[in-house]
Every structure is written in structure tokens, then in C-alpha cells.
Amino acid sequence: MAAQRLGKRVLSKLQAPSRARGPGGSPGGLQKRHARVTVKYDRRELQRRLDVEKWIDGRLEELYRGREADMPDEVNIDELLELESEEDRSRKIRGLLKSCTNPTEDFVQELLVKLRGLHKQPGLRQPSPSGDRSLSPLQDRARTAPP
Asked: From CA 41, how far away is CA 123, in angstroms rounded?
């Protein structure tokens, strides 16, 4: 008799819906789905941007050889592209390189030429309406959309 009660108790715990786990450890026997987000970007444009970023890194290493601690952390291509004129871009680049003791004019002029062929990447870096920069624009729109 005690064995029957023990068996019923164990059986009821195993069959309880709150305790049932399906594949992937999800409750109720539902399988967890892994979401994939895919976005199409112009591959050539992305490759050009990557090439410019590599060029910038290489040239900065040359300009700051022996003084790597003074090198700017980043030359943000999107920030430069957002500026209205080449004069503004030139001023911004020179401001980033003010600690460089080597001549930087060739670097500035070459970078300006390389920036002419690039476009700002929509969706890669957009300020969100809610001000939460941790969300992508798509996630932010879903969060701030009316129910």
C-alpha cells in the first residue's frame, strides 16, 4: 500500500504540466526556436568600407610609430560622412590627429578622397527614437510602436 502511494506521488510529479520539459529544456514540451535576423547590405560597399578602415589603421600605425599611446582610438567613418562639407571633415580629422608629431596633411587628403566613394550605412548606426542605443532600429520601432 505504501508502495502504491509512493508510485502515485512519483507518477503525478512526472506528469505535472509545470514540470514537463520538452527538447531544449522548454516547458510544456515546446521546442525552443532560434531566431535568425538577416539583412541584405551591398557587399561591395561593405568591402570598400572595410578596405578604408584597414587603410586608416595602417596609416595611423605609420604616423604614430613609437607613440602608439597618443594614437586616436577610432576614426569613425559614419561620423565623418554625416558632416556637411569636406572642410568640416578635414577639420574633424585634423582634430583627431592633433597629437601626431609627423606630417598628417597627406593622410587627411587621401582619407577625404576615399570618403568620397563611401556612403553612410543606414541601419548600422542610427539613433533610436527612444534614446536607447542598445537596441537596433528595428527592435526600437517594435518597442515604441503603439499596441
From this structure: 10
d(CA 37, CA 138): 11
DSSP letter string, 14-52: HH-TTT-B-GGG-BTTPPP----------HHHHHHHHHH
Q: How far apart are CA 80 and CA 119, in angstroms?
A: 10
Name the DSSP letter for residue 84. Answer: S
Q: Taking a C-beta distance cutoff of 8 angstroms, is the pair 129, 139 a contact?
A: no
What pairs with residue 21 in β-bridges? 27
Residue with the three cell numbers 535576423: 37
Q: pLDDT tens for residues 94-145?
A: 999 999 999 999 999 999 999 998 877 665 544 444 454 444 444 444 445 5
Q: How many CA atoms lie within 13 A of 139 on its CB side?
A: 10
